[in-house]
Amino acid sequence: MNTSLNPVELIGFSSGGELRSDAFYQAMVNAVDVGILAVNTSGMVILANRAVRESFGAFQGVHLNDVLPDLWPKVAQRLLGHARNTEISVRGIESNFLVRVSPMLLDQEQVGAVCVFVESTELEEMAKQMEFYQGLTRELDTIIDSSSDGLWICDADANVVRINPASERINNVQAKDVVGRNMRDLINARVFDRSATLEVLRTGTRVNLLQQREGRKLITTAAPVFDSAGRITRVVVSERDITEIDNLQRELEDQEAIRDQYRNQMLEMQQEQQLENQQIIARSPAMLKALRQALKVANVESTVLILGPSGVGKGLFADLIHKNSERANKPLIKINCGAIPESLIESELFGYDKGAFTGAQSGGKPGYFELADGGILFLDEIAELPLPSQVKLLRFMEDGTIMRLGSTRPREVKVRILAATHRNLEQMVEEGKFRLDLYYRLKVIPIHVPSLKERKECLLPLILHYIEWYAKKHKTSKRLSRAACDTLLGYPFPGNVRELMNLCERLVVMTESEVISLQDLPADVAKGDTSEATAPAQWPESMTLPQVIESTERALLAHAIKSHGCQADLAEALGVSQPTIARKLKRYGLAC
Ligand SMILES: Nc1ncnc2c1ncn2[C@@H]1O[C@H](COP(=O)(O)OP(=O)(O)OP(=O)(O)O)[C@@H](O)[C@H]1O
């Protein structure tokens, strides 16, 4: 190997021994874009053309190892004859190069090595991008194939391009049997009965379908994919099998229904216990429903209108609502609007200021509204409230203020109103006796308390309860004979529970023996007759005068209320005051 060859000598050579001028030779090697670099057998650079110099600097006449230490080992290997052609990647100043090292022979003798540099940055970038896109495609494939939702992809002509394994499973088809086929053919071949893809291609918009297929429930969403020109290129259909979700949902609903049932049962038991504690007897569905409504509304602030005949327990409902409300430790003031003389009602309800009228207390007086502040005002027999007081009550219900008689200063009171009546308020409104606006304000939550006739199931428990209760009260022991009990059960109790209570007390007090028999029952009850006054001559001799008076009074009132529609008329006809009538009707469990 000639190692003494120097750069100047080499430049003097030409291929085939033909002599070329340095200038010609240099112009030729500098003209090409590929880099050419030659070293002698010692590794000294003997040629570096323009392309190499531009990329690696001017280093002719130096040792290759000093300028391209990465390249030198390959070249050295080549010079030692270990390989014919060797390729290596080399980093230049700005770009990367792929360098091919070839032996340089002169007369069969190796005189050095020549390196050809081809810029590789772009190629590498492209390779990298290819790799990136291949990775992305693999990733997408994995995602598509592992999705538990079915994916069905078609081109703009409705040809199936791809389906994933979930879609194969959901549609019970194999990809190889459908990919490449047109959706229209698949519909014609009855593989499917409906195609979301065709819908999308027809409408150009997203389509949602709920489908039943092979007993499974599917939600299908098909969406168009557009190119930059706005043309549809693909339709992607995703299918979700919601059969399981649907079943789970149904199971959940069943569980919730069972839970609700238990909760209602527990609530009912709690409520029954609550009612028992408060000595409320209720067995009939209608009564239980009304009581449940009352417990439900107890904790809201709304006005409640308790409706039902006299003596059914409307006052009891007011107690129940109060006890179970957030105002339980505040007063419950009960006013019977029919029992207060008309001339006094306004001052009783709203109070008066000093000097409001002759005979007024000198310091003025608060009314029931002020006394009930923070608590509940129960306006029983609300239908008897005179019209001027109705106006004042309406004002309170609208702005929460009242005005004492003789005062011009409104006072704010925090009072919840409960009202009750056995009268038909709607009819009274029609007759102009009750204000419509007040009626609407009052009946926010109406509760209808059924008469004893409407709750036969309650009758026996009520009779037994009150016989025992009065027996305990009067420190005695009493029980009903079978016949007496049957007769009582057949009696209509027009005065409802109040009449029943009165009768039970009377039987407990009046019956000599422990057993209350048929003979102990009052004649009208024994006959089941409630219509006519019983002649005093028919009363048993054992009755005292007060008892005879009481019975006669009751019978007379029962008779008179048939021809007198309201307490005021009745009072006038019988020559007593309205409050007296109100008191007596209440006492005998009667109403008009
Ligand atoms: N379900 C019941 N269980 C036990 N006692 C009851 C029941 N219902 C009513 N009572 C009793 O009957 C009596 C009359 O009830 P209440 O005064 O509440 O009737 P009312 O409908 O308000 O009558 P009115 O319309 O004449 O004011 C009360 O002593 C009450 O305790």
UniProtKB/TrEMBL annotation:
Gene3D superfamilies, alphabetized: 1.10.8.60, Homeodomain-like, P-loop containing nucleotide triphosphate hydrolases, PAS domain
Location of the PAC domain: 203-254
Residues annotated as domain Sigma-54 factor interaction: 280-509
Alphabetized GO MF terms: ATP binding; DNA binding
InterPro entries assigned to the protein according to its UniProt record, in alphabetical order: AAA+_ATPase (IPR003593), AAA_lid_NorR (IPR058031), Homeodomain-like_sf (IPR009057), HTH_TyrR (IPR030828), P-loop_NTPase (IPR027417), PAS (IPR000014), PAS-assoc_C (IPR000700), PAS-like_dom_sf (IPR035965)
A GO biological-process term: regulation of DNA-templated transcription
Record keywords: Aromatic hydrocarbons catabolism, ATP-binding, Coiled coil, DNA-binding, Nucleotide-binding, Transcription, Transcription regulation
Coiled coil start-end: 238-279
Protein known as: HTH-type transcriptional regulatory protein TyrR
Source species of the chain: Geomonas paludis
Upper classification of the organism: Bacteria, Pseudomonadati, Thermodesulfobacteriota, Desulfuromonadia, Geobacterales
